[in-house]
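Q: Convert this sequence to structure tokens.
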Amino acid sequence: MSKFIISQVLVLKLRWSACKILALLFVVFCFSSIETWHSGYGWHDQQRIYQLLLLCSSALFAPFLPQTALSKPSLFLLIGFFSLGLCSALLAELPGWAFLEWGRYAGLLLLSLLVSGLSKRQFHMYFLLCVMAVVGFAHAYQFFLYYVMAFVTGIRILDADMLYSGFSNPRFLGQFQVMLLPVLVLLLDACRRTQRGALSVLLFLILIGHWCISFSLGGRGVWLGVLVAHITLLLINYRLWRASVLQVCAALLGFFLYLLLFKLIPVWLEIDLVLPDNLRTTLSGRERIWQIAWEMALANPWFGVGPMHYSATYNPIAAHPHQVVLQLLSEWGFPAALMVIAMAFWAGYQNIRYLRRSAANEVDAGLWLAIVGAMVLAQVDGVFVMPYSETWLALLLGLALARCGDGLTTSRLQRLACAIFCIPVLIVLGKVLIGEVPAIFLGSNDQVSQQHSGDRPRFWSQGWLQN
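A:
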């Protein structure tokens, strides 16, 4: 009996230590978009490094920490998808890069499962969401500080692309915003219910600020994602209307703030203004890269050209298709892509059933809005390519899984599959951290940079693959 008690105590201590390590790496990853800590690394590469650290730790602790039980259809579809991915990687032109993409997606899955198990406790869920809000506050503060500095320093030039920070492209900030905006509303409603007036005001100001930033950066995909997500929520359960009303009010106030800061004041003070065209109707070259991805898919229908191998064939526009379905079709093949689509519909169906219940509240509404908004944006942007956005999406999916899970005990098959996946994830991602990361700022991509000018981020900032 005493041996059993000692073993249980040791297990609890191990789990507590694992949770602390995961929490620390999670916070460091989140703040990797606020400040660059390492000379020689850009925003994209820094966020990728800390993503890999977080995913490696998730793979290391996954066999020992609780998880939410997956339904049998989801579990079999996931096993089938990753099994086909292994075949695709083995047949790829550059298997090393292909296994790296496979390992990253497997690591994101493990991270989601860990978050789903840990987030059964409300404290863990709100800790994750509050950190997201703090990051949102930091970005809004930096943006408006840089706006003021344009006047204080006497530069008298307002360029929206120079005011934001933390991302190598304004679209990548938009990918984070499409998930942040519903989460801010979720926390705002929680503060209202607990009568925390000052914090509610601060959260609402952050929300207004990010809408103003979005309008100034011209995030058309963000607006589409938010709109579609809110429409679907109201169609599913109109009783969850409060989130939509708060979001509309914040968007209107953010638009008025945008007009004041970027229209009226510059005209009044005769300041030069550089803003993207919010009314542009072109696809910015996406039709060409979509056509390339579709041709790749047709030429390699069963296993694709290999995970990440869209980036192995140079084009002057982008190193990824900017469309998640075409990305899967061209790189993983039709069978794997159909499995992901089937899994997405199954998960959506289960979430809709949960949202229709009387037990569903603003937390569930906020998670639905964030995830659906990101999925819509992924149809025109690289949400499943950029390290910061794809990691946050995995975290939010874990929270949603914890909320709508059926409470069943994790099956032996799920535990076994996770334990098996952990080994290659640790090997592949750990090899990159040890072998590649130190060489990035030393010019490991010089050959690619000389051949193709400009950053086209995929795994690293210079996204084109080479031997």
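Residues 122-152 form the longest helix (31 residues).
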